[in-house]
Automatic annotation (TrEMBL):
Residues 1-28 form the signal peptide. Keywords: Disulfide bond, Signal. This is Pectinesterase inhibitor domain-containing protein. It comes from the Eukaryota. Belongs to the PMEI family. Gene3D superfamilies: Invertase/pectin methylesterase inhibitor family protein. It comes from Rehmannia glutinosa (Chinese foxglove). InterPro entries: Invertase/methylesterase_inhib, PCW_Enzyme_Inhibitor, Pectinesterase_inhib_dom, PMEI_plant. SUPFAM superfamilies: Plant invertase/pectin methylesterase inhibitor.
Length: 173
């Protein structure tokens, strides 16, 4: 009987340890927590809703997804602004489109550089780059008095960059 108890305890601990590896974690709470800290939590949650397995991912993976979405948004906005600039004869609009296009070129470059920071675990640098992308979005929207023709996609980029900043801040602790 004396040898049964330690053996039973060891087997129980082994089972619990193994089960915790294979059972889903509560990382869904990670997504909820990150998105709750943005200005538009439902939109943020929607960005991560494309894959139900995302609920089991880690913060670095959530950051990588945010970076991919933000880069795609910035590039799409840049392309749209270029097309709008080419399609207008209004010099004021052409100048506004050009100004905003340059801001989104910068946002795209900054976000692209943040990919290397993520690989290098330079989370403070990622937070700074996320803030810079948010600033670029804000400057473009301010130029259009918050009614730019790319407002919807700009808002998504802003929220995703906010999520990226929240994640980077959490990882740098």
């Amino acid at each position: 009987m004396a040898t049964f108890f330690p053996l039973y305890t060891s087997c129980s601990l082994l089972f619990l340890t193994t089960a915790s590896i294979f059972l889903p974690t509560n990382n869904g709470a990670l997504v909820d927590d990150v998105c709750r800290q943005t200005t538009d939590p439902p939109l943020c949650l929607n960005v991560y809703a494309f894959d139900p397995t995302i609920q089991n991912e880690t913060l670095p993976t959530l950051a990588a997804i945010a970076l991919q979405v933000a880069e795609l948004d910035a590039n799409a906005i840049k392309i749209k602004l270029g097309a709008l600039s080419n399609s207008t004869n209004d010099p004021k609009l052409k100048a506004l489109y050009g100004q905003c296009e340059k801001l989104y070129v910068d946002a795209f470059a900054v976000l692209k550089a943040a990919v290397g920071d993520l690989k290098g675990r330079r989370y403070g640098a990622i937070k700074g780059k996320a803030d810079r992308a948010i600033g670029d979005v804000g400057r473009c929207e301010a130029a259009f008095k918050n009614s730019s023709p790319v407002r919807k996609l700009s808002h998504e980029l802003e929220v995703v960059a906010q999520a990226l900043g929240v994640i980077a801040k959490s990882l740098s602790r």
